[in-house]
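Notes from the 1:1 (GR / supervisor)

We went over the backlog. Supervisor wanted to see one worked example end to end before approving the batch request, so GR pasted a single chain during the call. The sequence is below; no edits were made to it. Supervisor asked that the structure be written out right there so they could see what the output format looks like.
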Amino acid sequence: MMHGLHQHIASTLDRLLRERRIVVFYDLREEFRPFLDELDVVGTGVGDLPRVCIHDTLTHVARFEGSFFALKAAMEPILAAPRPEPVLIYVPGYAKERLGKLRAPATPNTAQGKDVWNVLFELDCAGKSYEPSLRGLARNELRRRYTDGDIDEMLALESLTYHDVVRFLLDEGGGADESTSLVRLVLGGGSSEELICRWLTDEACDSDLETKQAAPELLKLVQARLGLALSDVSLAKARHQTLRYVLVNELRSDLGGQAPGQLDVVPAPPTKEELQRVRDVTERLRREHPDAYSDIADGIERELNLPALKLDAEALGTIDTFRFEEAVLLEHAANMIADTYYDRALELVVERRRSFWVDRSLGRLGLWETCRLMAELGREVGRVRPLLKQTAGTPKSWVEGYAIDWYRADLAQRALESWVAKLEDEPEPALEKALGLVRRNHETLLKEMTEGYTAALAAAGWSVSDVLHQTRIYPELVESVRGRVAYFFVDAMRFEMAADLIEQLEGALELRLVPAVGGLPSITPIGMAALLGGASSSFSVVDHKGKLAARIGDTILPGLAERMKYLKAVRPEAVDIDLGELLQKSTRALEKRLADAPLVIVRSQSIDGLGEMDGGLLARQIMDTVIGNLARAVRKLARTGIEHFVVTADHGHQFSIRKEEDMLMDKPGGDAVDQHRRCWAGRGGQTPAAAMRVSGADLGYDTDLDFIFPNGH
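Structure output shown during the call:
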């Protein structure tokens, strides 16, 4: 029966001969002469060259016997044919070099032979060269039955021959039980690294290894593959030493610069190949035995007190061998954010937010995402603030600047606040510090925007020309439209939220995002009334029973009930529905509820209502849900036959740092009609410092009220 080494070489040559017809077999050490001798000659062919069968290919065989020119001449008759017959050219004693050269055999006085011109270069180009390694082929074949430790011993002899390998494969000189790997008998099949990993994570196999006397073979395998010498130790101690060896060396090899001297208590692998296998083992442990790896790494981290090394985050590599590395990197990202290095922080987060430790903990993943969102907000704030100084002095330029670009800072701020509100783990001190700084920087941006816009607005007489006013939304975007219209009143919806909604409605036939100037003061009774029909021709803010109320014509509108009654009087065919009710109804039930109403009013108070509860925490948590619900409502209404949609708001909101009572605007005194966080309305009194008084007449209202607004809000 032919052995596996012969079968492998023959199979390779058979394939090459079929593909290229000509194969030049270089054999520097003349290790494969026995293979040629094993081939059975089946006659002669062109030029009396012998023919042999290599698997199913009948081929000529030509051997180099001292003269390359004679060998090439013997090839000429075969090469002259339009389609050359297969030919195997065996060149013992030479290795193929670059640029058409051959390396001659070494001499007693030289470590390497001289280069000579390769007369067979054209044959190499026309066909295919084959230059196998006996040890490489032997190792692949022997792995079918032996561990790498045993194989290293088998192949250690410098005088290893082809026949030696054949004897190993045919088990000459020993029975099958003696030469079969005892380690494989206990640990099963697979590569040597797989066997090592299996042993490292399964203490229960130790008794079987001891019983079958496989422990020496196992320790020999560890030394052969990983470079760690283990002798006269129990398997339990050997396991611990091996685990410490592979994990510490992975950490050490991944560090930039000089590794701390404290790690020298663990020896390093002697060779690059062994170090690579060490890294392969640790990677396999993480991939195939994650729970065990987590416990192992944490134990070694505690044993060696690795956090005390105080490793520089910049020196940490791309692999988080130990848990403390991930924590160091997260703190580093937070510190860069605090120092305003936002781009560098983002690069680090993108590179490291997915790792073994982060993937195993939603809490850690949440903190890395917090870092990303903080860095993005910080970068947006840093980008927008210089743009404010370049803005022209008109209110229109401020509105356009925000609507075209600046709103992205508020979009990033909402994303951050919404995420932080849902965190399960509290941010660590470094993250808490960075979060506070990013929030304050955003607050500064809001203050600069508000002060700049307010100054421009005051200079323009409190009017904004060439920009849609809130009272013009109904006549220009609702009343003028042909077909059925859904008109959304979303309490406290910000402009950036509308931009987000646009993204979620992708695929609609026509989408427009239009800024509008809200009525002052920016509170719900005023803003919602400004959206109704008739407000464009006669709108004012008045004192009604000691509270602010809107007035359209002669109708006073202090609250929702009055607004809906007015709407019914103006548009009796309109249908009013709450967003929550709409979403809970089936499409069929909704069709029945709406009938053929040409105007459907959809109301949502989720944002503003929840913003007044529990410090706004719940509102932060559901922001994204509200936008998604609006998109769902639009799609559901479209299925009922609604053709046009106008989504608008009474006012926006700021989720900024909460103001303590002593930081709020002082009460002006006088005849106070109403006071909110954003304004005071009344008559007389004193204008507090850092505040601005505006008469109702300046705002275009038919009223004797004055309004006081805090600067920067």
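Supervisor's comment: Residues 172-179 have pLDDT under 50 and may be disordered.
Batch request approved.
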